[in-house]
Design brief:
It is a single chain. This protein is mostly helical. It folds into 2 domains: 170 residues, Cytochrome Bc1 Complex, Chain D, domain 2 (Orthogonal Bundle), CATH 1.10.760; 198 residues, Cytochrome Bc1 Complex, Chain D, domain 2. It contains 11 helices and 4 strands. The strands form 2 sheets. Strands 1-2 form a two-stranded antiparallel sheet. A two-stranded antiparallel ribbon has the order 3-4. A hairpin with an 8-residue loop joins strand 1 and strand 2. The chain is globular and about 65 Å long.
Length: 378
């Protein structure tokens, strides 16, 4: 796997332009919705544009997406999409890429996605975006990209994507100012409860969280601890019935296999119900959790992991196990890893007290500007 620290830093001048575009409310259709409407700075660049349903409101009245808005912090360390050959696997395994389904290969491509998505910022074409860019940032973009940048709407839109990418790669978007960062730098230790949570987090027979949300305690460099391995997993979170599209019984978000079909991967259906493992940095600030925003409590998230196998009907209120996965893909769901491998009605891997300790540790991953907000979350 590539070393995340090999990721180049951003061009500071281009990042300044990218920041202006990020907060520009005139780049949506109708105007009034910026990137920051869903990626709220005060919420660690997460949020759902004021929606309480678990997914974001779009700029067009009545429009709504189908996925929970992720945090944009630390994205500079996400590798482009690639395949990793595990010695124990029959086929290469996908890693990296952007969005929950890995469909974007670069941050610039990801940044452009919401601008053209009819359920998000709702621009109909690169030409429509380019016109708005010229009106609001014409002089700056010509100075940066050349006097003919607006001769091609596609080139102008692409240039905006590169500017947004520079902002997302800037040092300000990777602050590394959490209590955990102080801990590994040796400047301040975690408290007793946080240390207990850390121990459970990495215990392969208890939380086993670190098997996917990887970190490196032996390095004092916090960039070695991103709390993700950039992989994908099928954990079958419950269906979020608040999402309007989910009112249609046949509608499913199949995740990575949608990208696999588009890119013509071998045996694409094996990746249905897989979604990218997110970083857990600033996870306690989130208003909603999982790709479909079905949970609004961090404790519920940890409890789900711990008891999905032992008490499935506590989570699948429909009475159908793995109810947000089409029946033909339910065999893809992870039932082999700890703690998913326990028998129904058996003792869960974590008890209530241990779940609380893990939640306490996860709050220690919150960067300093958001720590008060994290402490208020459940």
């Amino acid at each position: 796997m590539p070393d995340p620290l090999a990721t180049p830093s951003a061009d500071p001048a281009l990042a300044v332009l990218g920041r202006k575009l990020f907060f520009d409310q005139n780049l949506s259709e109708p105007r009034g919705t910026s990137c920051a409407a869903c990626h709220v700075p005060e919420q660690a660049f997460s949020g759902n544009h004021g929606s309480s349903l678990g997914v974001a409101l779009g700029s067009k009245p009545g429009s709504m997406g189908t996925r929970n808005t992720p945090s944009l912090l630390y994205l500079r360390y996400t590798p482009s999409r690639f395949f990793y050959q595990d010695d124990d696997a029959l086929l290469p395994t996908p890693f990296g890429g952007f969005f929950a389904d890995g469909r974007a290969d670069t941050l610039a491509e990801q940044a452009m996605g919401p601008l053209l998505n009819p359920m998000e910022m709702n621009n109909g074409s690169a030409r429509q975006i380019a016109k708005k860019l010229e009106q609001g940032h014409g002089a700056e973009m010509r100075a940066r990209f050349g006097g003919q940048i607006f001769a091609s709407p596609e080139q102008a839109a692409s240039a905006a994507g590169r500017a947004l990418e520079a902002f997302l790669r800037s040092e300000a978007m990777s602050p590394f100012s959490s209590r955990y960062d102080d801990h590994i730098r040796g400047t301040k230790s975690l408290n007793e409860a946080e240390l207990k949570g850390l121990k459970l987090f990495k215990n392969p027979d208890k939380g086993n969280c670190a098997s996917c949300h990887k970190f490196n305690e032996t390095s004092s460099n916090p960039a070695r601890s991103l709390f993700t391995d950039f992989s994908y997993d099928a954990i079958a979170v419950p269906r979020n019935n608040k999402i309007p599209a989910n009112r249609q019984p046949g509608h499913y978000d199949n995740g990575l296999c949608e990208t696999a079909f588009k890119l013509k991967w071998r045996d694409p259906e094996q990746w249905c119900a897989y979604f990218k493992t997110p970083s857990l940095r600033n996870v306690a600030v989130r208003e909603n959790y999982m790709h479909n925003g079905v949970f609004n409590s961090l404790r519920d998230v940890v409890s789900f992991y711990a008891t999905r196998a032992t008490s499935p009907m506590d989570w699948y209120k429909s009475g159908v196990k793995f109810d947000d996965v089409p029946a033909k893909y339910r065999a893809n769901v992870n039932i082999n890893s700890v703690p998913y491998n326990r028998r129904e009605d058996s003792k869960p891997a974590l008890n209530d007290e241990e779940i609380d300790y893990i939640v306490t540790f996860l709050k220690a991953l919150t960067d300093a500007p958001y720590s008060d907000k994290a402490e208020k979350r459940k």
